[in-house]
Structure formats: structure tokens, C-alpha cells
């Protein structure tokens, strides 16, 4: 039965699992165990033994950030486990290996990622990651393409959609915290007051913005394009110089692909606009910020290139039946349609990137890119630039036709 595990219970529990005992080595009494979770929802333990380590994640029956007053189903651990299995099949070197899962305890033991750090922290420290573009674009292209109607038959897809349909409590968090609350008075909203009071009020009064965010909300709710990670921000990515691992897919469900791609791009743009508030030498700042915008461009360009390559070579799904696109004319028409599909996906990506940015500045759950800027006025300046960028990305999405137009707008706002 479910119980919240403390250090002693966890030691005893893990000692009964031969695979974990083998991984850790030494006597259970000598294992070091510490709870290190700094996310919004769960407990995370790092366990180290004589010869190895494991990371153990246990869902709490409530939102950790808020407390017991906000209950949240334990079933999210089940969906996270299913998503990890799916991702491990398609991108094995880009997620942590699962060593053990316990449904009733809502617990998963995984390979300990060491010396990886949370990418968001690395970016705050102006560290660049040479593998990131290639790895994250592979992760997204493969996990999204191979769960779409371009790659899978209709029946299999519908089974997949059904298997994740009950992860709706996690979807509801996104629907409220990203697509609704930042645009209305909500008890849990917060921002850098008093500097952003007027901007927050303007966002609450802006009907154009309310239409745009509602269109995105509907797209999120009613577009089961692929099995998405659902929370793919830079706090869900662990990195070293030579490795990238995507963690924490508890928000996974069949949703719009642009929500994942937009999450990555939106969070990189926030890291870019937060950079002015963190201590760096001028040379370090210039080089790091230039690198970040190159990465934004690379993420989209490489994703699109890899996704299209998969579509051209591995399309065995029920969408776009090959029998309808025969001969030279058919092939040319299908290729034109692929380009049109990518243009629509890019529009959605831009919109979701904007939505992800606004929620981190005006909503409940903020990010340390901005929060760790100690000088509140400086923080508000950085946040105001990000809000201005996000507002124009959301309202003028059709005028952003290439990723270079997005990075150009970010660069223009950097000194606003
Ligand atoms: C109350 S949960 C707030 C946020 O934490 C998670 O990481 C998701 O981003 C969610 O929206
Ligand atoms: Mg998370």
C-alpha cells in the first residue's frame, strides 16, 4: 500500500530489491540516502552505495510546492513510467534507465545521472553545452514522430491516446497555470511587484491576448498529435559537456507536438533574456548569449530536418496514405505538404514558447533563471523584456515565419 517513504523505510524497501542491491553494492546500512527534490511536485532521493547510485522518485498525494491543500493523483508516477519506457525505446541514450517501478508506491528507481546537472542551473552559470542541439532535436524528432499518425496505424494510436487519457489532472495543471491564470486574477499568481504591476494588469485586460492564449489552450486540449513529454523545460533536462538526458515526463499525454518544442525554445529564450541579470564578464556574457541564440535556431532547424527525414524514410502510419501520392507529381505534392505541415508546427511552437514564458513571470510557478537575479529591479527589467517578446510572439505569430525572425526579435529586445 502507498505510504510516504522516509529515509529508513526507503533503505529497507530498496534492500529487498536484488537489482537495486546489485547496483548500489555494499551493505544497506552503509548506503547514503538524501532527499534532494527541488521540483514542484515530488520527493526525489539520491541513494549511494559502495559501487553505484540510484535516483528514486516518489509521487506525493499533493502538490509539494503548495502542500496538502492541493491534492494530486499518485497515478502520475504510472504515466511517467510509461512515458519513460516509450522514450527509452526511441531515444535510449537520452533518458535515464529505469531500474524499478512500483505502482502502488508511486515510485520509480532510475539510473543516477552523475555528474549531470539540471540544465537551467548550468545556463544561469553561463555554461554552454555543445551536444545539446543534436541531442534534444533527436529526442523530440524521434519521440514525436514515432507516436504520430505519420508513423503509426490508427488503431495503435487510439490505444496510445486512451492509455494516457486519464493523466488529466496533470493536464489540468497546465490548462490552468499556463493557459488561464496568468491572464486573470488568480490567488496564486505572483510577479516582481511593484515593477510589473502595470504589465500584469495589462495582460489581464488584453482581449487580443486572451483570444490568442485560448486558441493555444484549445490546441493543447484537443490535438492528440503525439505522445508529448508535457513539461520539457530546461529544469527537465540534465546535462554534462558530452551528454543530455531528459527527465520527469509525468505530464505526458497525447497532445500537440509544438508544446514540447515550444517549451524548449521558450525556456532558452528566457535564459537568454535573464542573462543580463547574472554576473558574468562582458566577454563571457556576449559569447554565452550569442551561443544561446544559435541554440534556439539550431533546436528548431535540426528538429525540423530530422523530423522531415523520418517522415520521408519511415512513414508507415495511416496519415497521408502512400497510395494517394504516387508518381512524380504525387511525390512532389506530398513534399510540398510536408513543408506546409512544418510551417504550421512552427506557428504552434512559437505560440507555445510565448505561453511558457508568460506563465513563468506572471503565474504561480516561476523559474530560477529570473528568480535568482537578486536585484529585484534588474530582475523586473529582464522579465519585462521577456514578456514583451512573448506578447509579440503570441499576437503576431504569423509574422514569425522562420526561427531567425524569432532570434532577431529576442536580440532587439535584449537592450529594450
Ligand atoms: C503546481 S505545479 C507547477 C509546475 O510544476 C511543473 O514542473 C510544471 O511545470 C507545472 O506547471
Ligand atoms: Mg517536473
Automatic annotation (TrEMBL):
Q: Where is the Aminoglycoside phosphotransferase domain?
A: 33-293
Q: What class of enzyme is it?
A: transferase
Protein EC: 2.7.1.100
Q: Name one GO molecular function term.
A: S-methyl-5-thioribose kinase activity
Q: Sorted alphabetically, which keywords does the UniProt record give? A: ATP-binding, Kinase, Nucleotide-binding, Transferase
Q: Name one GO biological process term.
A: methionine biosynthetic process
UniProt xrefs under PANTHER family: METHYLTHIORIBOSE KINASE
Q: How does it assemble?
A: Homodimer.
Task: Give the UniProt family note.
Answer: Belongs to the methylthioribose kinase family.
Q: What is this protein called?
A: S-methyl-5-thioribose kinase
Organism listed in the record: Bradyrhizobium ivorense
Q: Lineage from the top down?
A: Bacteria, Pseudomonadati, Pseudomonadota, Alphaproteobacteria, Hyphomicrobiales
Q: Which gene encodes it?
A: mtnK
Amino acid at each position: 500500500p502507498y505510504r510516504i517513504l522516509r529515509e529508513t523505510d526507503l533503505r529497507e524497501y530498496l534492500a529487498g530489491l536484488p537489482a537495486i542491491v546489485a547496483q548500489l553494492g555494499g551493505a544497506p546500512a552503509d548506503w547514503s540516502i538524501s532527499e534532494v527534490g527541488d521540483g514542484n511536485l515530488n520527493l526525489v532521493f539520491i541513494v549511494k552505495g559502495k559501487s553505484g547510485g540510484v535516483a528514486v522518485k516518489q509521487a506525493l498525494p499533493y502538490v509539494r510546492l503548495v502542500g496538502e491543500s492541493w491534492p494530486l493523483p499518485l497515478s502520475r508516477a504510472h504515466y511517467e513510467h510509461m512515458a519513460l519506457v516509450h522514450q527509452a525505446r526511441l531515444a535510449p541514450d537520452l533518458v535515464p534507465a529505469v531500474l524499478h517501478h512500483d505502482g502502488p508506491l508511486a515510485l520509480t528507481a532510475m539510473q543516477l545521472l552523475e555528474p549531470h546537472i539540471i540544465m537551467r542551473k548550468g545556463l544561469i552559470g553561463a555554461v554552454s553545452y555543445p551536444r545539446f542541439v543534436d541531442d534534444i532535436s533527436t529526442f523530440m524528432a524521434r519521440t514525436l514522430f514515432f507516436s504520430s499518425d505519420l508513423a503509426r496505424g490508427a488503431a495503435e494510436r487510439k490505444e496510445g491516446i486512451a492509455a494516457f487519457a486519464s493523466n488529466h489532472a496533470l493536464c489540468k495543471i497546465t490548462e490552468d497555470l499556463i493557459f488561464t491564470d496568468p491572464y486573470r486574477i488568480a490567488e496564486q499568481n505572483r510577479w516582481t511587484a511593484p515593477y510589473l504591476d502595470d504589465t500584469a494588469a495589462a495582460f489581464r485586460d488584453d482581449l487580443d491576448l486572451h483570444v490568442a492564449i485560448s486558441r493555444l489552450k484549445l490546441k493543447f486540449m484537443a490535438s492528440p498529435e503525439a505522445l508529448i513529454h508535457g513539461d520539457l523545460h530546461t529544469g527537465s533536462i540534465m546535462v554534462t559537456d558530452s551528454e543530455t538526458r531528459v527527465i520527469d515526463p509525468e505530464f505526458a499525454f497525447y497532445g500537440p507536438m509544438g508544446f514540447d518544442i515550444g517549451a524548449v525554445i521558450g525556456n532558452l529564450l528566457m535564459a537568454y533574456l535573464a542573462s543580463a541579470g547574472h554576473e558574468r564578464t562582458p566577454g563571457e556574457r556576449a559569447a554565452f548569449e550569442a551561443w544561446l541564440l544559435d541554440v534556439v535556431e539550431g533546436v528548431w532547424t535540426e528538429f525540423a530536418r530530422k523530423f522531415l527525414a523520418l517522415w520521408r524514410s519511415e512513414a508507415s502510419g495511416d496519415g497521408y496514405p502512400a497510395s494517394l501520392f504516387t508518381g512524380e507529381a504525387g511525390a512532389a505534392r506530398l513534399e510540398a505538404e510536408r513543408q506546409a505541415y512544418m510551417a504550421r508546427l512552427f506557428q504552434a511552437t512559437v505560440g507555445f514558447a510565448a505561453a511558457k514564458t508568460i506563465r513563468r513571470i506572471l503565474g504561480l510557478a516561476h523559474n530560477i533563471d529570473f528568480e535568482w537575479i537578486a536585484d529585484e529591479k534588474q530582475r523586473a527589467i529582464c522579465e519585462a523584456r521577456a514578456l514583451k517578446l512573448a506578447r509579440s510572439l503570441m499576437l503576431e505569430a504569423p509574422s514569425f515565419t522562420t526561427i531567425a525572425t524569432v532570434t532577431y526579435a529576442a536580440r532587439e529586445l535584449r537592450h529594450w
